[in-house]
Amino acid sequence: MNALVKKYPKEGLWLEEVPVPEMGKNDVMIKIEKTSICGTDVHIYNWDKWSSETVPTPMVIGHEYVGRIVGYGDNVKGFRIGELVSGEGHIVCGHCRNCLAGRRHLCINTSGVGVNRPGAFAEYLVIPATNVWLCDENIDRDVISCFDPLGNAVHTALSFDLVGEDVLITGAGPIGIMASAIAKKAGARYVVITDVNPYRLELAKKMGAITVDVSKSTIRDTMQQLGIKEGFDVGLEMSGNARAFNDMIDCMEHGGKIAMLGIQSKDTLIDWNKIVFNGINIKGIYGREMFETWYKMTSMIQSGLDISEVITHRYHYTDFQKGFDAMNSGKSGKVVLSWDK
Ligand code: NAD
Ligand code: ZN
C-alpha cells in the first residue's frame, strides 16, 4: 500500500510502498478516505527536537482521518464491513488506575497513532476496536477527518461552564478557531481570540469571533470596548506561546478558570503570585475524553456547529508536499488530504 513515511531522521516525508499492517484479533482495519494534517505532523515533517527524541524511523505518520471498515479480528463485536469510522489516536493500556476507572484519556501508558505506532497517512490503518468511533454518514467526510483536533477544542472548551461567561482564547490556530465556535454554541457571552498572524485572525473573524492582533493592540483595549470590567471568566490557552499565556493571566478575573491545551516550552515563566492571589484555576488538557468528547462533538455538529470554514486547503495525498508547505507557511487552517483513487 502507499503511505507517507518518515523514512529518515531528517526534514521531509516520503511517499512509499509499505506492507499493509497486520491485524490482531482485537483490531479493526480501516481503508482511509480522508486525512488532515496536524501541527504534530508538521513537527515530525520538520524534524524538530521533540520529534527527533520521540518518533522512531521509519514511521508511517498521521492520526486525523476518516475511512471505512474493511476487516476486523475474531474478538471484535459491534462493527460491520463498510461502516464509516474515525478513531481515537491515543491507544491506552486498559489496566492502569485511570483506565480501570473509565478515565481512559488519563492513561499513564498512552501510545500515539502515527507517532509511536503506524499511522493514518496510508491506504490502510489498523487500530484496536476499542479506539474506533462510528461516524454519522450525513457529516461531511472532510469535517470528520478533523475530529481529532476538533475533539481537542471540544475537550478544552467544555472543561468549564461557559453559559453567559466571557471567554478569552489565546492562539487562533485551527484548534483555537474551532474552540471559538464551540464556546459561542455552548452559550458564552463574548468570545475573544488573539493571535499575531493576520491570516488566521481573518479566518477566526469569518467564524464569528472577536479578534485581537496582539502585535498591534491589547486585550485590555478590547475588554474596554466590550465593557468587560473585571476580566475574563474562562481562558483557553491554545497557542503554546509564553507571552500569550502571560497576557491571559493578566486578563482573567479573580477566580477565573484556565484550560491549557497549548504546549509551552519548559522554561516559560509566569508570575505565580497572580495565580495564587487572584485565585486562578489552571487545568491541563491532553487529547480527548474517550468517548465523551467524540459524542459531544458529533452531536454539536448534528445540531448546527459548523467548522467547515476552518478547512482552507484540500489536496490528493500524492500532493502531500503542497499540503505541508501550506501548513508551514502559516497561511492555512486545516489541510485535508484525500486518499480516494
Ligand atoms: P498552531 O500552532 O496552528 O496555532 C497556534 C497559534 O498561536 C498560531 O496561529 C500562532 O500564530 C499563535 N500565536 C503565536 N504567538 C502568539 C501570541 N503571542 N499571542 C497569541 N497567539 C499567538 O496550533 P494548533 O494546531 O491550533 O494547536 C494549538 C496548540 O495546542 C499548540 O500549542 C499545539 O501544540 C497544542 N496541542 C495540544 C494538544 C494536547 O493534547 N494538549 C493536542 C493538539 C495540539
Ligand atoms: Zn491505562
From TrEMBL:
Residues marked Important for catalytic activity for the proton relay mechanism but does not participate directly in the coordination of zinc atom (site): 148
Localization, UniProt: Cytoplasm
InterPro entries: ADH-like_C, ADH-like_N, ADH_Zn_CS, GroES-like_sf, L-Threonine_3-DHase, NAD(P)-bd_dom_sf, Zn_alcohol_dh
Residue ranges constituting the Alcohol dehydrogenase-like C-terminal domain according to the UniProt record: 174-302
Domain Alcohol dehydrogenase-like N-terminal residue range list: 24-133
Pfam families hit by this protein: ADH_N (PF08240), ADH_zinc_N (PF00107)
Keywords noted in UniProt: Cytoplasm, Metal-binding, NAD, Oxidoreductase, Zinc
GO MF term list: L-threonine 3-dehydrogenase activity; zinc ion binding
A biological-process GO annotation: L-threonine catabolic process to glycine
Gene3D superfamilies for the chain: Medium-chain alcohol dehydrogenases, catalytic domain (3.90.180.10), NAD(P)-binding Rossmann-like Domain (3.40.50.720)
Catalytic activity: L-threonine + NAD(+) = (2S)-2-amino-3-oxobutanoate + NADH + H(+)
Binding positions for Zn(2+) 2 per the UniProt entry: 93, 96, 99, 107
EC number: 1.1.1.103
Chain residues that bind NAD(+): 175, 195, 200, 261-263, 285-286
Biochemical pathway: Amino-acid degradation; L-threonine degradation via oxydo-reductase pathway; glycine from L-threonine: step 1/2
Family in the record: Belongs to the zinc-containing alcohol dehydrogenase family.
Cited function: Catalyzes the NAD(+)-dependent oxidation of L-threonine to 2-amino-3-ketobutyrate.
Protein name per UniProt: L-threonine 3-dehydrogenase
Annotated organism of origin: Vallitalea guaymasensis
